[in-house]
Amino acid sequence: MKKESLNLGWKFYQENSDTFEIVNIPHTVKKVPLSYFDEKMYQFISYYEKEIEIVKEEKEYFLLFEGVLTISEVFINDVFVGLNEYGFVDYKVNVTDYLIDGLNKIKVKVNSQEIKDIPPFGNLVDFLTFGGIYRDVSLLTYQKCHIEKYNILYNGVSTKIKVYFNMVYQGSLKLTFKKEKEIKEYFYLLNANYFEIDIYDTFELWSVTNPNLYDVVIETNEIYQSTFGFRTLSFEADKGFLLNNKPLKLFGLNTSQSYPFIGFASTKNIEYEDVRILKEYGVNILRTHYPRSRHFLDACEKYGILVFEETPGWQYIGNEKFKNMTINYVRKMIERDINRACIMFWGVRINESEDDEVLYKETNRVAHELDKSRFTTGVRFRYKSQFLEDVYSFNDFIHDGHLFEMSKPEDIYDYVHQKPLLITEFCGHMFPTRKTDNELRIVQHALNHAYIHSYVRGQKDIHGALGWCAFDYNTHKEFGSGNSLDYHGVFDIFRNPKFAAYVYKSQKNIEDEAVLFPLTLWGFGERNIGGVTPLYVFHNGDKVYYQLDGGERIEIKDRDEHLNNLINPPVVLQHLNGIWGDKWRDVTFFLEYQGKIVKSKRLLCRGTISKLKVELSQEEIELNDAARVYVGVVDECETVLRHLNEPIIIECFKADLSCPKVVSLNGGEYAFYVRSISYENIIIRVKFDNFMVEKIVRIKS
Prior knowledge:
- The protein is mainly β.
- Strands 27-26-25-24-23-22-21-28 form an 8-stranded parallel beta sheet, covered by helices on one side. A 6-stranded antiparallel beta sheet has the order 3-2-4-10-7-8, with no helix packed on it. Strands 13, 14, 15, 16 and 17 form a 5-stranded antiparallel beta sheet that branches.
C-alpha cells in the first residue's frame, strides 16, 4: 500500500467568489480573532481544488480525508464521487473508476455551517467547530487484492490478529513486531479473504509509565505499517481499574482540538506538543469529546496517556437520522482506533443527553461486537440515569469553591461497590478563572482542583476524575465570558499554565521531576487587607522550607486537612511574623528530598523586567508542519511577570504565522505557532520594549 500526502497546494475560494488563494492542508476556512467575534463568520460554503498527475495502473485508488467539517462533497474531474457528513473521523472514498491517466482535478465542496441533524449540533454545543479540511488528505494506492483492515487485540495471554481482505488472497503473509533490537516474525500461507490467528508470545507491556510500542509490519503482496502497544485493562470492585493487572486511579483533563486563531487546523507537531505538555503536568488520562486526529492519538501512545474517546454531541439526541449517525459514529470511531493501546474507554452515549434505551442499547451492542477488550461508558449529568454501559460516567458540578467534596457515590448511581464510577467533569464553569485574575481567585481555582483530587483519592468507590478542562477555548456566546472565550482551563488558550496546573504536576513522582510551586505572586497588596497567607506550596518532596532575606530557614509544617489524601499534599504557610508594617522582603523556598535540597525557588518582592524568553518546541520541523513558540517576560529569578499585558511584536519570515504580528501578553506570557511553507529556514523575531530575541527553525529536506 502506498500513501501519498496531498496536503500541499490547494486552490481555496468561497462560494460565489471571484478570487482564490493557494493554501495547504490542514486548513481553516477563516482565521478568527482571539475574542469578540461572531461564530457565524466561518459558517459558509467553500471549495478546495487540486490537480494531481496519475500514471494509472491496474490498482485501486482511494482518497482519504481525515477530517472535514461539516459536510463535504468530493468530485473527480467534475464528477460527483462521494458525500461525507462525519466530520470527526476518516472518510475514504474509492476513486479508481473516476481517475484518468494523466492530469486529474479533485474538487471538494465544504459546508461549514452548523446543521441541526448532524452531530454534534442540534442543540447549542459548548465549543466551536470552525470548518474546512482541517486534517490530512492522502491518496492511497492498493493492489487489486488488498487488506481492508486488520485488528490486533491482546488479552494478557495471547495476541489475536484478524486480517480482512477485499477479496480472496492467495499467497504468503509475514507479520513482524519490532522494538529496538527485538524482532519477532511469523509466517503464514493464505487462501482466504479473512485470516485469524492467535500468537502465544511475550512482549514488553505498554503503560502510562513505560509506553512501550512495537513497530508492526504486515507483508502480503504489499506492505502495511503501524505501531502497537501490548496491555490489558480490567476492573475489580476491591481494586478499581487495573492496567496490566496493577491498580490505577485515573486523574486527567478534558481536551479540545481548537487553537487560537487557526481553529481546528492543527498539524502533527501542534497535536504532539499539546500531549507532551499534559504529560509533563502529570495527567494519566484525557477525554476527547469527539474522535481526535491520528496525530493526537499517536502522541498519547508515545508519551503514555490513556484516552476516553467518544461520539460527538452535547445534550441533544435528535431525529432518526441523528440517532443513526450516532450509531455509525461509534462504529467508525472503533473501527478506526481499535488498535490503539492508549484508548481505554469508548464513549457510546451523547454527552449529557437524556436516557434513550433503544439508541444506547444499540451503541453498546455495536461497541461490544467490535471490541470486547475495552470499557464502554457514557457521560450523564443526572443522578441515577439509566445505566447500560460498563462504566458509569458522571459530570459532577456541585462544588462551587466552598465545598471540599463531591456527590456521594450512592447518590449518583445504584451500583456502589459493584460497577466502576468515573467522574468525567468537575470545576469548569463553576469557577471560571483567567490567568490574569487576582491572586485570591487563581489560588482558589487551584485549590478547587486539589480538593476534588484529594476527595476522590479517599473514595474507594470513585475510580477516577477528569477536570473540566485542560485549555481555555473559544465557544458560543451562550457559554463564554462575553468575549467568545471560556476560561475553564487549568492552562490558558495559549497552553501556558495557571496555578491550577501545578496541582496536577505536583502529584508526579519526584524521580521524574522535582516540583516546587508556591501559589503566590508574592506581592503584599495582592490580597484583601494585604499579605500572602495562607500560602499553599505544592510540591512532591519530603519537606519544604522558606527563608526571608536576612532571616533563618524555617520548615513549613502546616497542612490543609482536606488535602491529606493527595499523593503529595501541599504545605501551608499560615503566618509570616514581623511582616506587617515591616519592610517587604524577598523569599526563597527550598524542597528537600531524602535529606537533600533538590530544588529552590526565589521570589522577589518587586522584580523588574530582566529578560525576554523565547523558546521553541522544536528547532527542526518538516515541510508544512509547525513549531510552538513560547514567549515570556521574566524577572531576575526567571519568574514570569504575571501583571504584564503589554504588546509584543512578532516578525516571521518564510513561514505562516498563526497569530497577528502585534499581540498582547497574557499574564506575562504568550505562545504562537509558525508553520513552514517552503524548505527555507524560518526566522522568528520577537520584540518587547527594548528586548529582541531571534530564533531559527530549520526545515528538514
